[in-house]
Structure formats: C-alpha cells, structure tokens
Amino acid sequence: MSMRPIITGLIGGLISVLLTVYVAKHVGKSGRPGELRFGGFMWGLAVACLALAFLPVAITLAGNDKEFWAKAALFLGFGLGSAYCFGEAALVRGSFNDQGIEFHTPWTGSKSESWNDLVSVDFVASCSWYTLKFTSGKKVRLSQYLQGHLSAVEMAIAKLGAERGDA
C-alpha cells in the first residue's frame, strides 16, 4: 500500500485547518461596525462545495461508470453542504449596539435581546462559535466566521462586566 494518499490527505487537511483559522482571525472585526454577517469566505465555501458536488457527475458523464454509490454519496454530501453554506451566507444577519443585539438565522429564528439581560458569554471550541446566554433562556450563537463577531463579543463581555460591577 502506498503512503501517497495518506500524505496527500494529511497535507490537504492541514491546509484547510490553517485556512479556516486564518479566516476566523481576520473576519472578527471586519465588516461594517455594528453589523453581523457572513462575507466572501462563506460564499466561496458554498461555491466550492457545489463544484465538488458536481465533480462526480461530470466524471460519470465522461464515461467512468464505476463506484456509482460512492459518487452518489459525494454528490449528496457536498450538495447538502453547499445548500447549508448558501443558506448561512444569504440568510444569517444581525446587528448590535450599546443597548443590545438582534440576530436572525433560518435555523433558530429571530432574537432581539438587551445587554442588561446577558447572563454569560462562552466560547464553544468544538463548534467554533460564541454562545451569548440571556435571562429569557434564549441563546445567540456567533460563529467565528461571521464578520464583526469579535466586536460583538467584546461589547457583550464589557456589558456583562459592567453589570456585575467589574468595570
């Protein structure tokens, strides 16, 4: 057995991890002040998934009819990933100011909360998002890939500290 596929996979995985870490660090304070939305990275990821979804179709149409179920699984997996990324990029929106935060996703709906009702701010490393918990029981989850997420988290932490008397 050749080690080439394993090494190639490890290199590809390392490149994707480094790329996502780089993007997460650079979009945190980008975008318009007080606005939360996905930028070009999420749109690019959606297009890349769409291209990868149709790659097995193109290979099949070119005459390679082997491994039908594997190609169907790739088409389905990358197709669903593409739909999810397009949904995130187009429909996730939010804004924040000194009074509070408003956030909308197609998955959890709209939320409008006051900083005065903020209970905690936690980072969930396994999901790459910050969870803002409020007294109403609602949670606002801010992805690291959202433009402006760091500014919102810093404001939330400052408001939480002021509420507790830390500031």
β content, as a range? 15-25%
What percent of the residues sit in helical stretches (DSSP H or I)? 40-55%
Q: Main β-sheet: number of strands, strand sense, barrel status?
A: 5 strands, antiparallel
Uncertain segments are: none
What integer is the average pLDDT?
Answer: 87
Described by the principal axes of the CA atoms, the overall outline is elongated
Number-wise, the strands total 8
Whole-angstrom Rg: 20 Å
Instruction: For the record, give the distance between the C-alpha atoms at the N and C termini, rounded to a whole number.
Output: 61 Å
Element order: H for helix, E for strand = HEHHEEEEEEEH
Q: Give the structural class.
A: alpha+beta
The strand line-up of the biggest sheet is 4-3-2-1-8
Question: What's the tally of helices?
Answer: 4
Set down the secondary structure blueprint:
Elements: H1 4-27, E1 35-38, H2 40-61, H3 68-91, E2 93-96, E3 100-105, E4 109-114, E5 118-124, E6 129-134, E7 139-143, E8 146-147, H4 149-164
Helix pairs in contact: 2-3
List the defining traits of the structure above.
alpha+beta; five-stranded antiparallel sheet; three-stranded antiparallel sheet; 8 strands
What does this molecule look like?
It is a single chain. A hairpin with a 3-residue loop joins strand 2 and strand 3. The chain is elongated. It contains four helices and eight strands, in the order αβααβββββββα. Helices cover 51% and strands 24% of the residues. With 167 residues, the chain is an alpha+beta fold. A five-stranded antiparallel beta sheet has the order 4-3-2-1-8. A three-stranded antiparallel beta sheet has the order 5-6-7, with helices on one face.
